Structure formats: structure tokens, C-alpha cells
Amino acid sequence: xxxxxxxxxxxxxxxxxxxxxxxxxxxxxxxxxxxxxxxxxxxxxxxxxxxxxxxxxxxxxxxxxxxxxxxxxxxxxxxxxxxxxxxxxxxxxxxxxxxxxxxxxxxxxxxxxxxxxxxxxxxxxxxxxxxxxxxxxxxxxxxxxxxxxxxxxxxxxxxxxxxxxxxxxxxxxxxxxxxxxxxxxxxxxxxxxxxxxxxxxxxxxxxxxxxxxxxxxxxxxxxxxxxxxxxxxxxxxxxxxxxxxxxxxxxxxxxxxxxxxxxxxxx
Length: 267
What we know:
mainly alpha; CATH 1.20.1330.10; 7 helices; 4% strand
């Protein structure tokens, strides 16, 4: 029996320190929701998780870009729907102006409405979306993934020849009304093509958005397996470490009292 060196107490102290460290780490995991608190917990898993986190954020940014492009396209179509109504009315007026029972004054009234509708279409050509022109022949490159994938969204130009020819016509005479009708009909055909192109772009954008959403969900799920703590399992481990700390504390106290038995020998 020795006094200077209490090996039992030293061993108990070491075990208590280990249990206390495990208890603290378990508490950190439960409070943070992550099972990787420091790199040494899972160095390889941390590296993979960091890459997953970055990719998920890039995909989120791409989804936002596509959503904005969809809003841009829908805004375009809202205006083009009104242009369609205006052109339909202009074609109706062009036919009405050819009525042989209508005099010059009547034709002037038809022409007045025709000109106002033409100005309305011309004004729409200058509309913008967040400072970006809605109607231009310049194509727009839309990001469709988290790297360099792009989708070319064709531009729609309301200043194209077919539109300006229609809006620049008049109904003042029977001959001009006939010419105006031909030009308005040509503009309607061009508009139909433009709206079909726009619809195809909208379909593609929606498919790309859905695909990215699914991809991001799967990446987040894989990342969760690596870094997110299993609360049920960790709660059990927390209870275990808590018991070990309490019992270790009691045993350390017991080990420290063993030296007192020497006093009996000395007495």
C-alpha cells in the first residue's frame, strides 16, 4: 500500500475526463443538430458534406434564376395577350372601313380607333421588367444548372417589320383599308409564332426548374445522412455518458478515500 501514488484514483480520473468529454460532445451534437462538430469527428464526411452544401446553394441560385425567367416570360405573354386583342380589333376595323355604305366621316372614326390601338401596341414595345426590355430581338441565356448549363430564350421584338407595318397603316380610304387588313393579318401571324415560341420557352424553363428542385432535394437528403445527428441514437448516448460521468465522479471520490486506510496501520 502506497501514499504518494494513487494509481486507482488516477485511472478513475482519466476515465472521468473521457466520459466528460464524450458527454460534452453529445450535448453539442444534440443542441446543434449536427453530428460533425469538429473535423476529427469525420474528416472525410466533412469534406463531402461541404461540397454538397456548396452544390445545393448553387442549385438554389439556379432555381431562382429560372423562376425569374419564368416571371419575365409570363409578363411578356400578358402583354402579348393584349396585343392579340388589339390586332383582332384592328382587323375588324379594317374590314368595317371597307363598307360601301360608310362615308368619309365614318371611315375617319374607324381610323381614329385603329390609330389609337396602333399607338397602344407601340407603347407596349417599350415595356420593361426590372429595367430589362421585355420586347427585343436579343436572345437571353438562362442558367439551367449549377455549372455552365444554359438555355437560349429567343427574343420577341414588337418593333419588327410586321408589327410596325400594321400599326403604321390607316383606314382613311377603301384602298388603304384593304392594305391595312393585309398588314394586320400578317402581324397576327407573326404574333402567333412569337407566342408559340414563348410558350415553348416557358415549358422548357418549367421542366428545368422541376429537375433542379428534385436534384437539390436528393443532394440535401444525401448530405443529411452525413452531417445531421440521429436524435434518438444520440439521446441514448447522452444518457449513457451522463451515467458514466456520475458514476465516475463517485468512484473517483471513493478512490481518493482509499489512502485513509493507511492511518489505521499507523495508529
